[in-house]
Amino acid sequence: MAEKETLLTANGLKKLxxxxxxxxxxxxxxxxxxxxxxxxxxxxxxNSEYEDAKNEQAFIEGRILTxxxxxxxxxxxxxxxxxxxxxxxxxxxTLKDLDDxxxxxxxxxxxxxxxxxxxxxxxxxxxxxxxxxxxxxxxxDIQVPAGNLRYQIMNIDRAH
Length: 160
Description:
This protein is α/β, with parallel strands linked by helices.
């Protein structure tokens, strides 16, 4: 079975590469130091410091493997190739909520870069998926767990 392609913006690729480098250099060293200190405390069979450090080490190594796999399968979305007349990965979309008249802006990104607090939503999320392929002026009904959303697409442009 082929591994799933990881869609990233250039900025998202840079952030993942930086995180991987940080984990491999800084965090690995910190945990190794914690393990060394915990072992110096003596009997590791009842040493919670040692257990915590081993758990953290396992988490870090798992994250490193995940990042390496994602980066190996990365496909970078080139901003100049993102159409600005249709919602696609890499688009910044301004929507008007037809229920309350409020406007909101989302950037459509791959799932590895999604950060709802920063209005960066995944192309695989209910809202992101529903917006893909639509044009300025269109009204979109989106079924979400909390009910139904009605948005009008006010503007589409390329995210930076």
